[in-house]
């Protein structure tokens, strides 16, 4: 059985994968996007508790790992997140789902305008979170 701490770490790592998928939907992640992503994660996910650094770190670590590998398989990482969401639906409260959508939309808007690939992925995410 997974511990609560392990589930939290995996939750944030999967969130990092999702946000990477959104950024990579157009088959490229520019350095400017990555830098903006780090700012957005701090804005949306930094908590006023002892775990704040761990939360942001886990999200950024997952994103950065994929970015360094130039792993631009956005659909795979999106599906990984959806599978995680389906496996642990209790972790996805209404407030968390709204926060995820807000962050994902901000990432999509972080560099220029939202393109068709990002828009499709955001719509799929919205549907997946509402299940």
Describe this structure in words.
This protein is mainly alpha-helical and 131 residues long. It is built from six helices and no strands. Helix 1 crosses helix 3 and helix 1 packs parallel to helix 5. The protein is globular, with a radius of gyration of 14 Å. The mean pLDDT is 87.
Q: What share of the residues lie within helices?
A: over 70%
Task: Tell the overall outline.
Answer: globular
Cα radius of gyration in angstroms:
14 Å
How many helical elements?
6
Secondary-structure-derived class:
mainly alpha
**Average of pLDDT:** 87
Please tally the β strands and state the result: 0
Tell me the distance between the termini. Answer: 25 Å
Task: Give the low-confidence spans.
Answer: none
| Main sheet characteristics | none
N-to-C series of helices and strands:
HHHHHH
Beta-strand percentage? under 5%
Brief summary of the model shown:
With 131 residues, the chain is mainly α.
Record keyword descriptors for this entry:
6 helices
Secondary-structure map with pairings?
Elements lengths: L3 H20 L7 H15 L6 H17 L5 H14 L6 H16 L6 H15 L1
Helix pairs in contact: 1-3, 1-4, 1-5, 2-3, 2-5, 5-6
